[in-house]
Amino acid sequence: MYAQFTHLDGPRAGQVRAAAKDYATIGRHPECDIQFGPDSDLEVSVQHAAVFKQGGDFMVRDLGSTNGTFLGGKRVRGDRPLTGGDILRFGPTGPRLEFSISDALPVTIRPEAPTVPARTARAEIFGPKTRPTERLRTEPAAPTGGGWKWLLAGLLVVAAGTAIGLKLRVDHRRDETAARQRVLMARLQEIKARLDVLKPSSAGIQARVDEARRSVETLGASIMSTTIGPDDAIRLGERIAADSAAHRVISDAAGFDPAPAATAAGAALAVVVAEFPDGVRTGSGIAIRSQGDTVLVVTAAALVRDSAATPRALVIIFNNHSISHRATLVRNSGGAALLRTELHDGNPVAALAETPASGRPVAVAGFPAGLDSLGDWRNAGVRFRMATASIGAGSTLTTYGFPVSLGMALLSTRGELVGVVTGPGPVVTASAVIRQLLTP
User: Is the pTM of this model over 0.90?
Assistant: First the structure.
């Protein structure tokens, strides 16, 4: 069985190439078994990929190309098996080859025609004989000396060929580096363009956007000043992908407006005060259920519980109010706690919604420093503060220069409760756990 390839596009479309070797290389180099145009197929590396036999099967392997080898739309990493009809693409938008298997020897070696000795004229056979002494006189004398000239010429040819070969290798290496630089810089330009159009809503987010821009510019300068090999291209590509994901989180946060969330859920926010024998703790909470005169408020368990002591008193003060209400602990789970208080005619509450995926922006609202930062709240009432944050991996929260404390609420654009800050870091308890607290 022999590997056979059909060009599907480009200037060689329709051409069929076959490899009689068990290990065939593919690329733009003149010595590759399956060649692409050196000037037309620029997404193909000089030594791009190889197809080889392993057991009774054919395998494909990427040889550290700049733009990657794709089989069935997926990038080839390691060795991948091939079957007849598979389509190989060299680069995300580069030329394609259709792989097939041929049972016939793809290259036919034709024997050279036998040499027929020249026919001797009849006159030469039957003519008069020449004496040996005459034949010696008529034969030219063997050349003497001058052999060193031919040797020198041969050495010069070899030296010239070696120099040309070295120059070609240097040129190919330079071309490969330039191609890798172009691909990497194009990806960086996409990230920078996305950052340049942002209009951050806060100084904290603006600082993160500026930091991201500087990071992109520094990486771009490093790429343009470094000789980039295949391994370097893979490493830098992975770093750019990771940076792009992080910068997308910042972009989403910059475009998020927390004001609608605060408007929708502001009346449900509250200050929570817990008095312990060793002092007073203050934080935030938010009402999530109201029935008759009973109102249920969710907050952080660490704010109202202590393994060493029981709180002497729990007090709740709702936003825009200066009246405190006694509360009791109903239950706690997963870092969150449920409090109950009695209010005449109840209180507005926030609806629960699913916690968004990692990286998505939310509004964080509440009372970062509790009563300590509210001034004369007994006359003016308490007033919450808000900002934009991003849900992070592992139930963490990314904030942008905004102080966050226990019990602060995470809200969707519509003011729905999607989580509560329940620990330092800060750590977030998702709405699914909060929903369980409402079930006795």
Answer: no
